[in-house]
Amino acid sequence: MNILLIGSGGRESAFAWKLSQSPKCEQLFIAPGNAGTGQYGTNVDIKVTDFEGIKAFVLSNGINLVIVGPEEPLVKGIHDFFLNDEQLKNVPVIGPQREAAQLEGSKDFSKQFMQRHNIPTAASRTFTRDTLQDGLSYLATQGLPVVLKADGLAAGKGVLICLTLQEAQQELVEMLTEAKFGEASSKVVVEQFLQGIELSVFVLTDGNSYKILPEAKDYKRIGEGDSGLNTGGMGSVSPVPFADEIFMRKVEERVVIPTVEGLKQDGIPYKGFIFIGLMNCEGEPWVIEYNCRMGDPETESVLPRIESDLIDLLMGVAEGNLIEKQFTISPKIAATVVCVAGGYPGEYLKDKAISGLDNVRGSIAFHAGTGMQGEDVITTGGRVLAITSLQDDLFTALQQATLDASRIYYDGKYFRKDIGFDLL
Ligand code: AMP
Ligand code: GLY
User: Fold this and answer.
1) CA-based end-to-end distance of the chain
2) Which of 23, 29, 79, 82 has the lowest CB atom count within 10 Å?
3) Choice from 218, 219, 338 to test ligand 2 binding pocket (greatest atom count within 8 A of CB)
4) Considering only CA atoms, which of 403, 401, 410, 418 is closest in space to residue 369?
5) CA–CA gap between residue 259 and residue 286 (Å, rounded)
6) Rounded to 5 degrees, what are φ and ψ at 400?
7) Is residue 289 lining ligand 2, measured as CB closer than 6 Å?
8) Which amino acid residue places its CA nearest to atom 15 of ligand 1?
9) Ligand 1 lined by 122 (C-beta under 6 Å)
């Protein structure tokens, strides 16, 4: 099969690595990819939202399967674009259509979906500029802290956890009347704060049946001990020790099944990955958010644990016979440590030459924000590399990933040395 993978981050590097191992993979293209994805396939210089460019490439290269990594093209309707095009409509796309992608693209849509299908989630109400006064009064009736969420995509910055009523009211005003997060905050979800430990659960579905992929935990803060600013993700581990059989059974019965069935009942087709962000509150799962794609850097820990052929599974999604596909998960433990650029998540250093990649021995170095400058691999993004190690126990996996992260050099390199140690 000829495959086009869309995206350029650590997640897509992990996908490219896994896809390239399948005997079904003839040619793998990554648009636009990064300096690392070129090891597993051919990078093509097309932007993830350039649908016409993608169309031309798919037609001229006999692509049989398109896999969409990031949310933006999904929320913008890449799958609908294929279905509505005479020449493309028979080329399967992995990733939901625009309507279903609203599970990520609109917090209000996802809250309404969860409420309609009795999926456990924090109590909430949605406000707009017209109902600002109601929102301010509602806030005064809520406990603290209270959570404010911009409805639309806000590059991971649209969620505010407010500690005082004054702060919450001021933020609500800024979001609704001063477009603090642009168009994304023209609607704001005000939500009850949930106290607990987070984890990410991933589901692959063809719209009828599903497979629950290995769960993972990601580490969002820049600093050790989960301190400092939020980032795209500084590391991940899979499995998550507290997600035991009893907890995962609750997740399946209360969240996964109602989600897949709810989509069906609502007449919303879904072919792709569902990322369920959960809070474990004293052993009970509560949904914090849905994403319409895999997580990053969770994917880097999740895919190495999947032993089955990924293309076979994805063809099951495309053809609607996922239920028949064999699915095995490795009992091994994966740990991922992300190396970031100096300054990240603020303004960060770029174009720094990377060396030492050949010194990585017991891990896989998935590239994220990298590019080529002549013969040199250079940094191009905030999250530069995701170093993943798969081992028999969590301690060894963490130690190995951390050791290999320390074997790489570039100006300003930083990584957290405490990823996963809270779980030991
Ligand atoms: P989101 O953009 O929905 O992933 O939210 C970003 C982060 O905010 C989540 O990963 C949580 O850490 C936190 N968060 C979101 N909603 C809540 C909530 N209701 N209670 C506590 N923390 C939350
Ligand atoms: N790691 C969180 C995300 O991918 O959104």
Assistant:
1) 42
2) 23
3) 218
4) 410
5) 13
6) -65, -45
7) no
8) 288
9) yes
Q: Could you identify the residue written with the tokens 């016409």? A: 52
Q: If you measure from the C-alpha of residue 156 to the centroid of ligand 1, how many angstroms do you get, rounded to a whole number?
A: 10
Peptide bond preceding 285 in cis form (omega within 30 of 0): no
Measured CA to CA, the distance from residue 340 to residue 410 in angstroms comes to 10
How far from 217 is each of 190, 237, 277, 278, CA to CA, in Å? 25, 5, 10, 10
Instruction: Please report which helix (H) or strand (E) contains residue 170, including its range.
Output: helix 165-177
Cα 216 to Cα 420: distance, rounded to the nearest angstrom: 11
Phi-psi region of 392 (alpha: psi -120 to 50; beta: other; left: phi over 0): alpha
CB of 159 within 6 A of ligand 1: the answer is yes
Q: How buried is 388 (Cβ within 10 angstroms: 0-12 exposed, 13-18 middle, 19+ buried)?
A: buried
Ligand 1 atom 16: residue of nearest CA: 288
Sketch out the chain's domains with CATH numbers. Answer: 2-85 (3.40.50.20), 123-192 (3.30.1490.20), 197-423 (3.30.470.20)
Which residue, among 345, 350, 340, has the nearest Cα to 378 in the 3D structure? 350
Please list the pLDDT of the chain residue by residue as tens digits (424 residues).
999 999 999 999 999 999 999 999 999 999 999 999 999 999 999 999 999 999 999 999 999 999 999 999 999 999 999 999 999 999 999 999 999 999 999 999 999 999 999 999 999 999 999 999 999 999 999 999 999 999 999 887 899 999 999 999 999 999 999 989 989 989 999 999 999 999 999 999 999 999 999 999 999 999 999 999 999 999 999 999 999 999 999 999 999 999 999 999 999 999 999 999 999 999 999 999 999 999 999 999 999 999 999 999 999 999 999 999 999 999 999 999 999 999 999 999 999 999 999 999 999 999 999 999 999 999 999 999 999 999 999 999 999 999 999 999 999 999 999 999 999 9
Q: Best substitution site from 126, 159, 189, 226 to test ligand 1's pocket, by max atoms within 8 Å of Cβ? A: 159
Give the SS3 label for residue 185. Answer: helix
